[in-house]
Design brief:
Elements lengths: L1 E6 L6 H17 L3 E10 L8 E9 L3 E8 L2 H25 L1
Parallel strand pairs: 1-2
Antiparallel strand pairs: 2-3, 3-4
């Protein structure tokens, strides 16, 4: 599976990038038909503490799955996004088995 990590207006350090790849690869264990994934990291332009945004798009056969989460840290936002994608993958997997 191909994993693309993009950041908007800042450089991602290697530690965060390796964490992202590790979390996304764990999703492929749950559902093996993931073709690729795009992860976008952004800093929201607000005065609140929760200004780190993580968007994850998984390309699978048929439809793409998407999750966007905002939190205090990129790690926490990534955890929340991958948890949401796990639920979506489980639901999608159930639909595929019914067909």
């Amino acid at each position: 599976m191909k994993i693309n990590v993009n950041s908007v207006k800042f450089k991602v350090d290697s530690k965060l990038e390796s964490l992202i790849k590790e979390k996304i690869e764990k999703l492929s264990v749950l559902y093996d038909s993931i073709l690729s994934s795009d992860v976008i990291l952004k800093l929201d332009n607000t005065s609140t503490i929760d200004n780190k945004v993580v968007e994850v798009r998984l390309a699978i056969k048929g439809n793409d799955l998407f999750s966007k989460k905002q939190s205090k840290t990129f790690d926490e936002a990534l955890d929340n996004a991958t948890d949401a994608l796990k639920k979506q993958l489980t639901k999608h997997k159930g639909k595929v088995k019914k067909i």
